Amino acid sequence: MCSYVTVKSPVTGSGKGSAGWFRLSHAMTYFDHPYHSPYEHTLNIDFVDEAAGPSARVAVELTADSARELVRCIEEALAAAGDVAGG
Amino acid sequence: MYSGLTAEEIRITGHGGDEINAYLARPVGPGPFPGVAVIHHMPGWDESTIEIALKFALHGYLAIVPNLHYREGPDSSPDDAAAASRGAGGVPDERFLGDLSGAVDHFASLPEFNGKAGVIGYCSGGRQAFLAACSLEIDAAVDCYGAFVVGDPPEGMPLKVTPIVHLAENIHCPLLGLFGNDDKFPTPEHVDVLEAELKRVGATYEFHRYDGAGHGFFSTDRAMYRPEAATDGWERIFEFFGRYLVTA
Description:
The complex is a heterodimer.
Chain A: E1 7-17, E2 20-32, E3 42-48, E4 57-62, H1 64-81
Antiparallel strand pairs in A: 1-2, 2-3, 3-4
Chain B: E1 5-13, E2 19-27, E3 33-39, H1 47-58, E4 62-66, H2 78-87, H3 93-107, E5 113-122, H4 124-135, E6 140-144, E7 175-180, H5 188-200, E8 205-210, H6 227-244
Parallel strand pairs in B: 3-4, 3-5, 5-6, 6-7, 7-8
Antiparallel strand pairs in B: 1-2, 2-4
């Protein structure tokens, strides 16, 4: 399918793309056809700096299972950090 | 089969007089050859779409693939440009039509062109192929599992995509539709609605629906590839374009 649905969220931090490190402004998250992964659909996240142009992008294409596991791991890591991570 | 080909990236004039890039593949020979404009899918102006253009050239067609995301990243890789296009809301229909029209018009500058041009699109490009059939002076169109020709997009969808089945009464040319019965976008019911509308307006059309195939069954580098459906689909495509585009 082409879900066409893109969830855009502001993010604060940095990413490393083809030209080195840059500041991130947003994460674009969507479940759709991948560009590279050899799967029918993947959970795709583009970490971007919109002001810096299309090449300021760190892209990942994850299977649905691995994306869910990543969400769990992120929550686990944040929880383990306790007060340091806020929340 | 034409074993000799020339293929290259070129510049064409797209919507609003903008220069965009395109991939052009041509059989070697005097022709006359028909032209086919290949519309890429949402992931962009990619290798798999260019391979489709090469296949058409092997079969005696001039084939052009306009980069519909060029403006979002003229100095970026096509995948980055596609991501930027998605983030900006996608390709507006009017701009798509202008760019596709520019691609089709480019054929007229080629001495071996026979004057007949068709379009083919996959996935989101399938919807755009139907839009082109209803909007541009072309001679044949192929819609490969285009979503949202019929049916409302999901709630809150940020892209500028709307159903266009109501345009069927303006259809200018014969339409070939190829669909997988396991597809969710479009579902077999969506295809039923489109077929009923084409019947109602008296359009010349031909639909083929494949059991055991879902969305993207032509994609050889994906798990959804279905060789039986894809092989039959290619035969239908060449028979259809052969009927409406080939003149010699």
